[in-house]
């Protein structure tokens, strides 16, 4: 589904920045930590570690990704959806709500 991502972006000299631009360093650190966990899981499989220990690490990595996703979703609601709601364009507002709802549905699918 194509989205009109420019609605909630701030435009600067360096181009387009989304609301999370100020949190990018924290998000990047968290994602790098998750990346390390995933590499650890791969290493555990390669080294024939106990399956329950691997599943425990998978669970931790999954929870980390879910936390990042929730952070991004909260920001999307607070910034992009709220901005669309106050724009005076009911179609744009409805589209942003639908976009957020679709994102939640994707996150809940297992």
From TrEMBL:
<keyword id="KW-0804">Transcription</keyword>
<dbReference type="GO" id="GO:0032993">
    <property type="term" value="C:protein-DNA complex"/>
</dbReference>
<keyword id="KW-0238">DNA-binding</keyword>
<keyword id="KW-0186">Copper</keyword>
<dbReference type="GO" id="GO:0046872">
    <property type="term" value="F:metal ion binding"/>
</dbReference>
<protein>
    <submittedName>
        <fullName>Metal-sensitive transcriptional regulator</fullName>
    </submittedName>
</protein>
<dbReference type="InterPro" id="IPR038390">
    <property type="entry name" value="Metal_Tscrpt_repr_sf"/>
</dbReference>
<keyword id="KW-0963">Cytoplasm</keyword>
<dbReference type="GO" id="GO:0005737">
    <property type="term" value="C:cytoplasm"/>
</dbReference>
<keyword id="KW-0805">Transcription regulation</keyword>
<dbReference type="GO" id="GO:0000976">
    <property type="term" value="F:transcription cis-regulatory region binding"/>
</dbReference>
<dbReference type="GO" id="GO:0001217">
    <property type="term" value="F:DNA-binding transcription repressor activity"/>
</dbReference>
<comment type="similarity">
    <text>Belongs to the CsoR family.</text>
</comment>
<dbReference type="Pfam" id="PF02583">
    <property type="entry name" value="Trns_repr_metal"/>
</dbReference>
<dbReference type="InterPro" id="IPR003735">
    <property type="entry name" value="Metal_Tscrpt_repr"/>
</dbReference>
<keyword id="KW-0678">Repressor</keyword>
<keyword id="KW-0479">Metal-binding</keyword>
């Amino acid at each position: 589904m194509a989205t009109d991502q420019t609605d909630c972006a701030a435009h600067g000299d360096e181009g387009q920045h989304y609301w999370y631009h100020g949190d990018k360093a924290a998000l990047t650190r968290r994602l790098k930590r998750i990346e390390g966990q995933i590499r650890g899981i791969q290493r555990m499989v390669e080294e024939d570690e106990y399956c329950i220990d691997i599943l425990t690490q998978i669970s931790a990595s999954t929870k980390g990704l879910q936390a990042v996703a929730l952070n991004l979703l909260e920001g999307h609601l607070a910034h992009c959806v709220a901005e669309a709601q106050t724009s005076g364009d009911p179609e744009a507002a409805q589209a942003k709500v639908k976009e957020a709802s679709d994102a939640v549905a994707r996150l809940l699918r297992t």
